[in-house]
Design a protein that fits this description.
heterodimer, A: mainly alpha, B: mainly beta, Immunoglobulin-like, Ferric Hydroxamate Uptake Protein, Chain A, domain 1, 11 helices, 7% helix, globular
Chain lengths: 493, 1026
Amino acid sequence: MMKNIQNIKFKFLLVLLVGIVFTSCEDTLEDVRENPNTVTTIDDAPLFANAVRSLFGGTLDQGTVRFAGMHAHYYVAGSTSRQPDQYIDGFDGNYNSVLNGTYNGVIRHSEEVLLLTSNEETPNTVRYAMADIINVMGFARITDGFGEIPYTEGGKGKSEDILTPKYDTQQFIYTDLIARLTASINVLKTADPAMAYPDSDPIFDNDLNKWVRFANSFRLRLGMRLRYADNALSQQIVSLSLADPLMEDNSHNAFMIQTEGQGNGWYGNRTGYPSIKMSTFMVGKLENTADPRLAVFVMQDENGNYTGQKNGLNDVAFGQSDFASKSDMGLALSSKESKMYLMTAAEVYFLRAEAALAYDNEPAVANDIYRMAIETSLRQWNVGAAEITNFLASPIGTLTGTTLEQEEQMGTQMWIALTPDYFEGWSHIRRTGYPVIEERTDSDLERGVTNGIMPKRFLYSSFELSSNGTNASEAIARQGANKIDTPIWWDKN
Amino acid sequence: MNKLLLLIVAIGFSISTYAQKSISGKVVDKTTNEPLPGVSITVKGSSKGMAADFDGNFTIQNIDENAVLVFSFIGYKPQEISVTGQTSLNVLLEEDAEALDEVIVTAFDIQRDKASLGYSVQQLKPEEFAVAQENNIMNSLSGKVSGLQITQGNTGVDGSSRILLRGITTIDGSNRPLVVVDGIPVSNGSSSGNPNGGRDGGDALSDINPNDVATVTVLKGAGAAAAYGSRGMHGVILVTTKSGVSKDGIGVTLTSSFTVTEIALTPKLQNEYGMGAFDSFSPIGSDGRPNLDYPSSWSYGPKMEGQPYTNWLGAEDTYSPRGNTYEEFYQDGHSFTNGVSFEGATDHSGFRMSFTNQDTQGIIPNNTLNKNTINFRASSNLTDKLKIDGKVTYIKSKVKNRPELGEGASNTALQLSLMPRDIRLEDAKKNTLDANGNEIKWNLDNTFNNPYWALNNVYNEDSRDLFQSSFSAKLDLTDKFYITGKTGLNYRVSDGTRHAAAGGKANSNGLGNYGTNQSKSSSWNSDILATYTTKFSGFNVTGSVGANYRSDYSKSIGVSGTEEKVPNFYRISNYAIVSDSDSMRKKIVYSYYGLGQISYGGYLYLDATIRNDNSSALPAENDSFWYHSENLSFLFSKFFGLKSNTLSKGKVRASYAKVGNDTSPYRTQSSYNINQARTLDYTVASIPGTLPNPNLRPEVSNSWEIGTELGFFKNRIHLDFTYYETLTEDQIMSVPISGTSAYSNYITNAGSIKNEGFEAQLNLIPLETENFSWDMGLSITKSKSVVESIDESLESITLNSLMQVSIEARPGEEFGTIYGLDYLRDNFGSKLITDAGLAQPGERIKLGSINPDFYGGISNNFKYRNFSLRTLISYQEGGEFFSWGRGYREMFGTDASSLIGRVDGIIEEGINENTGFENTTPVSALQKNYTNNYVSNIRTDLIFDASNIKMKEIVFTYDVPKKALGNSGVQGVSLSAIGRDLFFIHNATGDIDPDASNGSSPTATALEHASLPSTRTYGVNIKINF
């Protein structure tokens, strides 16, 4: 009897033991395999919105703030952010993040939209065309900074499992970008807005007419970019662009106001770190012509003056330059709610004026469009009508002199009007040579690694050279040494 | 409390009296009949004892009529003899071939005779880890266990430790060994800072209270650890806590220790030149203060000779050196640890409960740690056949102001090391805020704060509550068959809050920030194991089958904000821009396993393990994987019947293991994140930058080891030697890829690492007499990990990087090779110098390796009567590290080495690149240091030798003689004076501590940057038993 009870007790305990140990096993492997923090399927609209917003974000990336803005002599940054202004190149990490930033933002998300809108189940040619425009703009931005870049295979890490994409020549890239824009413009001209992004368009609120103008204006920009590299193609693209609708007034501008986070990034620079002081070059250009945009783009210093900081000072001269007392960037550019621009009607008029002069040999037409460009720019910055009239009536309001002088006048005004798209301003100088950035010869200026010549590109980073070495080396062999003074294909000035 | 103590003491300490007598006799060797001098003789159950004289004779007075004498001698089996009815004794002691062998706790808490194990294992006793009172018990193992490499960076109180067992075998991941406490795996995670900033979030292993630990066993190879499945791939450290069953009655132990921590090593700074550049004062700006931009605010001004000048605040002052800022800023830290434990046992049950409180104050004034641990463990033989054991541990700890590290703006060491040498620290202290409430500092750069502003305005604290509980039962069904079940739950709640006040541009651009985060994690482990044992014709056979279920779950919720609305208020409502986070993770693994052991004749042992894991972290097609291990031990001395005095023990062993490993969850499916947006009327989603891999397979590690244990002269010389090799293939890793793919990483099975090496432990007993003994331990480890291949699309994988120095895994090279730019050189190796006299950056080359050539420790243990002295010296030969701290100090002109060329400039050795003649053009020290270190990023001269010999530990203990304690009720008092990390006997780099890293990742030691000062700790420790 006792023995039996013992046995029963043991069996009971055994069951209890096993039971306790394994009661916690309520889940199967399948139950927990999926990531609960993310979704596995999604409509392409939120990804499109991301790509567009990334493109705007890119206008304030390091490529602009740290490099292009100072190379193009718009401003000088303080502290160690000033170094690129000395034309040196020890910025491996920065170059790497500039290269990767656009690929990982604009390209990654627009590629995904292209994939989702071209599959067999849910094709959408309208959305595809819009995402393609954004994708083109992203690649254009990268190639303008570096020259040759991975393009046909670039950005295909997920869609085609390409982890070490080969590089393409800039000539090929430009030709293809333009062709894709043409295709997208043709789709969007007759598209049904309901098929586009009625609720997810951060730029034009799904106004496809504006999208067509935007894409076509961008095509014009790319076309003019080829002026010195492939003149025939340039002329052909420009005439194609002029036949389609373009941005014609400021309501067509592609801008966005950053409402998330701390707003426009220039706000942080003006109020925080690193300090940005407008350049003597910029202040001088505006002051010399009594440009009403001086008060817009430049803040008064503590004494009520507009004082610029000289670019390129060596360390001794910089120490003596009283940097801290110089003029900040204007409030219209550097407030939280300041607009971020991808492209403006003013730029389009300048491009058209240049085309009229260079391609059509029509100085009078060019002058009319040039005045339209200035007027549009002044309106963009809310300059009053009387001031606009005065400014247009001043000598700068009319193209004068030789063709070359007129080109310089236009080029300089376009550089001013591109503010705050400093990256495009740098590309503009590289393409046209205007405004002229003199070689640095004064003893208080740093000549850097370029012998005092404005840098012409970014470097492929050591990480890119190690993670995609074979392809990058091929590009270097074609393009020229991986240096900041090696001009990229379209840069002939 | 006192009354309770008295009561317990009274219960536990009852003395009965009997008739007294005296007895004498002689102790001889049973086989040779030779007298044995110095045999220890104790009266069982009392403190009475003595040793036999030179001829083996002894006499003991006044012992109880029915006392039992215990005779013990090294190399012999102990013997107990009752004195009842005897007046003289002739004692024959039998030699014990395995006398020095211990009972070792192995996988699943199975206790094994060390001799029977076919793999390398080392077990430590409390005096080796509990006396020196490290916050993290693992730090006490440093230098004491061959094959184990432990380094602790200078990261404040509660900093994490880098722990590697037999080097590095996997490219990704922590490479940290699994830690198992009382059979339940615990979190071995650590959170570390890095050279670019961040804070060291601590080490989960500091949750193990040294005072509660009975033994620590290190299972080094996969052969030993295979039973723990994939998690044992990097070895296992088994921690067994005290259970209380070993003591009769109720015992009370009080421990108390107090230690002081002081600065031991700081960088050597110059005291001749103050703020300015190019030998001039920094120009005074329109605000009346000198220009604070670089390089004007560096220490390249005129020579400091007490001349009048305008100081950094814009005040008239005299220009003079101000002394050692480190010593002025940092204080002596201290730590106070108090513990009480109660333990008791009856015939059937035992328990132990303890409470420990630790209060630590770091060298930074507001950096503190408070930790309370309550531990309860009880076991009982409920019936003859059923035994249960349970444990509950609760730990509550709170750390304040974990220091920011590396390039982080509020890293005080960064600021102190770079601040112009003419700035009075007192001035920085008095002038932290201007009239507008903004920070006053000496530099515009946003990487630097005024150290006192940071101290007053940047804050963080975190607390954790940890519950560890386990329950196990063992049921003997028959004499030969038993079942054990075990389940354990670790549950941790962490809560962290941080803020920085507005006004300091280096912190959220002057807007201020706040964040608070709560996370909880649980890990549930359950095992059931059935074991059958049988004997037949000389064979002992044990076989077990078991199953394990493990579930890891964590959830974290946080909120953070910037743009402070009103000052000095730190709640989320006070911030204009807010974002939050919410995430959870879960992973489960089911396992089935079998263990078997066959032994024959007491000299041949074969162990085998087979295990199958099924993991939710792998894709369904590949989620089940098998592995196995085989271990063989052969006691040849016993087999051949060797009985010589020279070779007292001889054993060879061999082990082979194949271990699989899964990965962290959610790496196999592509997915989309929904972005947090607060102002948009449309949805934004993003794609994670890491490409998942739906075809992931488990990684596989094949390892084998052979070893021997040899004892000579009755084991007074004992050598344990192991050679091992591990090949880890198909490693699961996140490979950094070219950003031009639109992604930053992808998950793949790629690459293999071959890890080989040897480890040896030599124990010596040079002297052993009745009153004095000296034993010595020497350990040496040589471990080499070579990358055999990585993903075919890659030339190398960057494991860690800082200022263009990268730590890489490159096929054909050692894991952890240091790469950086060398000087531009001609074909003969001469530097090519520009016309301006400057060196230029050249090729990116191998500049060093993080791996030491060999390392180990030398321990000495002296005992004289009641005194003992333990010393430990740790050493490392070879291995390099990059010091950006030095590079920065040179550039800022604060480092003593920046004094070179201040007067006449520096002529770089090399040839002019244009003329081909030797360079004769001098450059200023500023220009050279700035250009080489920051613009050209030449790293050749910033790589340093990590070789060092360190006085790691000295512990001096005095056990108060029992007779001195008399009838006080106190059974034992032990007093110790302790010292840790006392000084370098040799440090190849001089003023930089090669261990002074910012974190605990496998490659953390490679990169030094503005580390906090190294410290030494000394103090006292008292332990009282009632």
